[in-house]
Give the backbone structure.
Amino acid sequence: MTSDCELTKAVEDALNAPSVRNTQPWKWRIRPDEVELHADEDRYLDITDPDRRDLVLSCGAALHHLQAALAARGRGVRVRRLPDPENRNHLATVTVEDDAQPDLIAASLYPAITSRHTDRRRMSHRPVPRELLQSLQKHARRAGAELVLTDPGVREKLMMALSEATELQYQEPGYAAELRIWTHRLPGSHDGVPATSVPPRPIGATKATGLSHFGRPALAQPPLPPGRSPDDDAADFLVLATPGDDVLDQLKAGEAASAVLLEATRIGLATTPLSQALEIAASRHHLQTDVLGIPEHPQLVIRVGWPAAGSADLPMTPRRPLRSVVLPS
Ligand SMILES: Cc1cc2nc3c(=O)[nH]c(=O)nc-3n(C[C@H](O)[C@H](O)[C@H](O)COP(=O)(O)O)c2cc1C
């Protein structure tokens, strides 16, 4: 029998998961030996995320955080995804089983939960060694997704695709207003992207204009070393992709995103999840067929690189308290 307190603490750890615009679109029900994860439809971005893809990905990331938190407490679990065909918001039930072994790989990622942050600043000119990218691929695969590496030619096309997708999104009535709502929260808010997480010229030196209206920038870019230009940013752009594109694939893509982000953090890399090129069907199709040329369905772009020298520590982004996200048991 697991103590209620242990499950509650593990859920609290899971609340640190990344989520689109920091909407934290989840609800939890904590029962003896069991935690249910539900999507919170009130927090879904209906113009930015018409397919609920980002919502499910965000919940998938929280689901993986929960598994890491329970594994770190020595608990083996059984995870049932989409257990109730009558309730599309019931995304998973995680049951602690006394005779199940804890997942040691998930446990090894647990300490990174509190040090992972989305870093939108310029990254170092030092490239990330291929072996490290391949280790991220293994983590993604374990969670049921492929992590597609991109070479410089593809990367340039990917940046173009990100910019074009952003332009298309701005043409959507209500998009700019929805973005503003989640990037201009009042001080002391428990959600949304704070200005202290947004640097001027986000995503560093690249030509992408994708995040230029993400909020009032209040995060300094790292100093440029002598002889370097802002374009010397060696961050890699990786794409998480799944064999299909149903809700189960999206949930697993979210779990894989969490595994990749936590492993990258564990080895000292900075990370930025980027969903803009995936939110509109036409942009997603363009990315899949013209840019990447893959049969799998792209779900999320993840930018990874070494933090640039002199990068200050990133502030914590806010989170809703447990009492706001727990359903009656
Ligand atoms: C599915 C998903 C999509 C996201 N899309 C973007 C994005 O397009 N641009 C961006 O700057 N951050 C994006 N993020 C990062 C969130 O804004 C970030 O997780 C949230 O603000 C909480 O901050 P933290 O990651 O530092 O904890 C995304 C995160 C998730 C999980």
In short: The pocket of flavin mononucleotide is lined by residues 18-22, 54, 57-58, 61, 117-118, 120, 193, 211, 272-276, 300, 317 (CB under 6 Å). The chain is about 35% helix and 15% strand.
